[in-house]
Write a structure and sequence with these properties.
Helices cover 30% and strands 18% of the residues. By secondary structure, it is α+β, with helices and mostly antiparallel strands. It has four domains: 91 residues, no CATH class; 79 residues, K homology (KH) domain (GMP Synthetase, Chain A, domain 3); 41 residues, no CATH class; 73 residues, no CATH class. Helix 3 links the parallel strand 7 and strand 8.
């Protein structure tokens, strides 16, 4: 995710604007919204929507009212209203799509208490803002040392300065309630600024810090995912996944958000399947469902007391048997249905359809070193014998 002027150069550094994700085109920022209405003009007599979306550090976005009608475009740095002083952010969305985003986030665009945009940021505002951003890493390291010295069971994950440098917000995660009153006093004395502590969840922490998941791609929460739905182990059960915490957990330590992506498709497919707790009545005994394969539309059943021997049945066969059981009729055994199914199934054998040759056809054959050594030893022995052979006497 990078704009044309932020092409990656050496050592992973931006080659063009070198702003590390704060370029004016807003093409390499996280959670960027594409304005597909930017090339369309408004109808005659309609005024543009007076609210804009502004992004601050990482993924924090807020909506502000452009009361003075300042001409703004995506990527403009603006000074916005804060509880005390002003903040500096970047415009990420303008126009009618802002109304859609506000409706999605349950924000009333007719509310008069909506914060306002003061002005476009001046050079002095941007200079103060960049200086504050440069101090964040050092302050974060020092604040962690203070928290460790106070034996507080918390993790300070990120620091965000207000645009005017008067206040800093510390984001932390903790398992239990933490009394950080002494921590705030020590940090205010050490840094000389107002301190605000804000607790976030582990998913929000991963969203702010970013990273690469087990799939090899950037984390969904730090690139495009905007809402965090609850993920339970039932999502893994419906998808027939092994309940292994090491594979199902993400970098935040919670269940992966991607477990919900295909859950609706699995639930829709399972509606046509018999319930997994269904029982098949046979003359041989009662059979219980052991496994379900949605893609092959196959269910495996095993008799009571013989759980190691599974019998594969098609979905239609199971429904047929259940209908017979409702009429108090029993089938002879599962083997009869399973044998018919096995006869229909074709055994898949690998065939070289394309006619490809062996993958090792270009490899050089390995030479046997022992054989080479034997040949050299035989040659040297033959030379020694010839040299040591006594010369023949000349006959008179």
């Amino acid at each position: 995710m990078a704009c044309s002027s932020c092409a990656t150069g050496k050592d992973g550094q931006p080659k063009g604007c070198k702003n590390n994700g704060t370029c004016g085109t807003d093409g390499c920022n996280k959670l960027t919204v594409f304005d597909w209405l930017s090339n369309m003009s408004l109808p005659n007599g309609q005024k543009p929507f007076d609210c804009v979306e502004v992004r601050f550090k990482n993924s924090r976005k807020e909506f502000f009212r452009n009361a003075e009608g300042i001409p703004l475009a995506i990527g403009d740095v603006v000074a916005t209203q804060a509880k005390s002083g002003h903040d500096i952010g970047m415009v990420t969305l303008t126009g009618e799509l802002v109304k859609v985003q506000m409706k999605k986030k349950n924000v009333d665009h007719t509310d008069n208490a909506l914060p306002k945009i003061y002005r476009k940021a001046t050079e002095k505002d941007i200079e103060i803002w960049t200086n504050c951003r440069d101090r964040e890493e050092g302050i974060k390291k020092r604040s962690r040392e203070i928290a460790i010295s106070l034996n507080l069971q918390m993790k300070l994950s990120d620091v965000e300065f207000q645009g005017d440098g008067s206040k800093a917000t510390f984001y932390y995660t903790a398992e239990e309630r933490v009394d950080f009153r002494q921590l705030i006093k020590d940090m205010a004395k050490a840094f000389g600024i107002r301190i605000e502590m804000r607790q976030i969840g582990y998913r929000q922490e991963a969203q702010r810090l970013g990273g690469v998941g087990s799939c090899g791609r950037e984390l969904c929460c730090s690139t495009w995912l905007t809402d965090f739905r609850s993920v339970s182990t039932a999502s893994a059960r419906y998808q027939q996944l092994a309940l292994n915490p090491q594979k199902l957990a993400g970098q935040c330590g919670k269940l992966k958000c991607c477990l919900n992506y295909e859950l609706d498709m699995y639930l829709e497919a399972l509606q046509d399947f018999p319930a997994q707790d269904s029982k098949l009545m046979t003359e041989k005994g009662i059979a219980f469902c052991q496994k379900v394969d949605i893609f092959k539309e196959t269910l495996w059943f095993a008799y009571k007391g013989d759980a190691s021997n599974w019998h594969a049945l098609k979905k239609e066969q199971v429904i047929e048997i259940l209908e017979l059981n409702k009429k108090d009729e029993k089938i002879e055994s599962l083997e009869a249905y399973a044998q018919v199914d096995e006869q229909r199934a074709e055994k898949l054998v690998f065939e070289n359809v394309v006619g490809q040759d062996s993958l090792t056809r270009f490899d050089k054959p390995k030479r046997h070193k022992n054989k080479k050594r034997r040949n050299t030893n035989n040659k040297t022995k033959g030379k020694r014998r010839r040299n040591n052979k006594p010369a023949a006497k000349n006959e008179k």
